[in-house]
Write a structure and sequence with these properties.
With 465 residues, the protein is an all-alpha fold.
């Protein structure tokens, strides 16, 4: 590609998105640049504090459990209080709790504060995703979620290397540095990001509808199609997280070192940073149903191929396969979640979606440990292939009655009267590149996303929201 062509492609990738999105994007990037606690928690507890690996695992599990607990609560806050107040509370609480964690010495105190850190750091995810859906036009959402997921991986790639050097000097400096960067993000949100929650629907007598506009957690749970997608995201998350819990164990069993694992898994981050934007340009206006099915199969069989790996090179090739699945799945699935969510209930819907990944982050280590110990690593990779096949069939089954994205019109999620959200398409219109929504609540990513969309790797590898 010529320099002029590259510049044109870059301009088309970043143009047309609102200024508020770029402030959110900046906040995401800074958060990932400051990621330290979840990434180095195990090393901190075992090498610096001298605790056992079992205790380190318990603390990591409590950190993940905190994320599970906060997901739905943060979703409710996002709808009730608003996106901006929820992000402010979550990020400020994260900054304070991370700083406090660095000074804790008693085992019980460390475990308790780690649980609080997990709750606080996960609480901003529903608000960020809901705000992006509010402020970005439907036809630009896949691109926006992809750019946000790209920021997650770029920031995490840089922070992993930098934080390693910081840890050699002082773990406390890492805790304080992360707290400072998270607090900076809270200030950015306070100064630069206005509230985007849709206006409440007017009712007879000149008043407004209730704050939730009829959307409750029960509404989300009765939304059959949406909960089906949440279940599929759980399966996909179980697959992706094996790259961080099953893969290093399997490589160690093959006699490979931790540096060999680092080399293989580095391919994942490099490919996402290099390919996320061009791949998104390629898939942006293609049928999202087929893309989700293909990504599920690539994920399942990408990990399935690991059963035949025995060297660093072959392991790296398998990482290439499932990384491509991750690049495709993250923005498309996040866009699907937004399309299936009514504007007034986006916080609760995003909270439920976030919880599916958080629960998978708790189950994935147990799953890999039990399968490898009792049956061998080959059975784990075969299980991943089966899960990928089931997820692909599930996407086909849930979306087979939806028209394609080539201009067909279907009833979209109902928008309350007076809705002014900038990101909501007119009822009955399907925008190219977005997934048409089924009836909500009766019938019904980036990774997904995201990263954070997303977010499988975000949770599994410690990428903090």
């Amino acid at each position: 590609m010529s320099v002029a062509g590259f510049r044109r492609a870059a301009h088309e990738t970043v143009s047309g998105l609102p200024r508020e999105f770029w402030w959110l994007w900046t906040s995401t990037l800074v958060n990932r640049l400051g990621a330290f606690v979840a990434t180095f928690m195990a090393l901190y507890l075992t090498m610096d504090r001298g605790y056992s690996a079992s205790y380190a695992g318990l603390v990591a599990a409590l950190h993940g459990l905190g994320g599970v607990v906060s997901s739905l609560g943060a979703g409710v806050m996002t709808d009730r209080l608003g996106r901006r107040p929820t992000m402010l509370i979550a990020q400020t609480s994260t900054a304070v709790s991370v700083a406090v964690l660095g000074f804790m010495e008693h085992p019980f105190a460390i475990a308790a504060v780690a649980f609080v850190v997990g709750m606080a750091s996960n609480a901003s995810r529903p608000a960020v995703q809901a705000m992006m859906a509010d402020i970005v036009r439907p036809e630009d959402r896949v691109r926006a979620f992809s750019l946000n997921y790209w920021a997650i991986n770029l920031g995490f790639a840089v922070s992993s290397a930098g934080a390693g050097f910081i840890a050699e000097y002082s773990y406390l400096a890492g805790f304080i540095g992360e707290a400072a960067m998270t607090l900076f993000c809270a200030v950015v949100v306070f100064l630069k990001v206005p509230e985007s929650r849709p206006e409440q629907a007017p009712v007879a007598g000149g008043g407004k509808a209730g704050k939730d506009d009829g959307v409750r957690i029960g509404t989300v749970l009765r939304d059959g199609r949406f909960m089906g997608v949440v279940g599929l995201s759980f399966l996909v998350s179980l697959i992706f997280q094996q790259g961080y819990v099953g893969l290093p164990v399997a490589m160690g069993a093959d006699g490979l070192s931790s540096s060999d694992f680092g080399t293989a898994i580095a391919v994942n981050g490099v490919l996402i940073v290099v390919l996320q934007i061009p791949v998104t340009r390629f898939i942006e206006h293609r049928d999202p149903r087929r893309l989700l099915i293909i990504s599920a199969l690539l994920a399942g069989y990408g990990f399935g191929l690991t059963a035949f790996a025995g060297s660093v090179g072959v392991y790296a090739l398998t990482v290439c396969v499932w990384t491509l699945a991750e690049i495709v799945n993250a923005p498309i699935q996040t866009g699907l979640i937004v399309q299936l969510s009514p504007a007034q209930g986006r916080g609760r819907y995003q909270g439920m979606y976030t919880m599916s990944w958080a629960v998978a982050a708790l189950i994935a280590p147990l799953m890999s440990g039990v399968v490898i110990d009792h049956y061998g690593a080959a059975w784990l990779w075969g299980t991943c292939a089966v899960l990928g096949t089931v997820a692909a069939f599930g996407y086909w089954l849930l979306m087979r009655n939806l028209p394609g994205s080539a201009g067909s019109a279907v009833p979209a999620a109902p928008v309350p009267a007076g809705e002014s959200s900038a990101g909501t398409a007119p009822t009955g219109v399907v925008v190219a590149g977005s997934v048409p929504a089924g009836p909500v609540p009766a019938g019904g990513k980036d990774a997904g996303a995201a990263p954070a969309g997303g977010a499988a790797k975000d949770l599994a590898a410690g990428k903090k929201a």
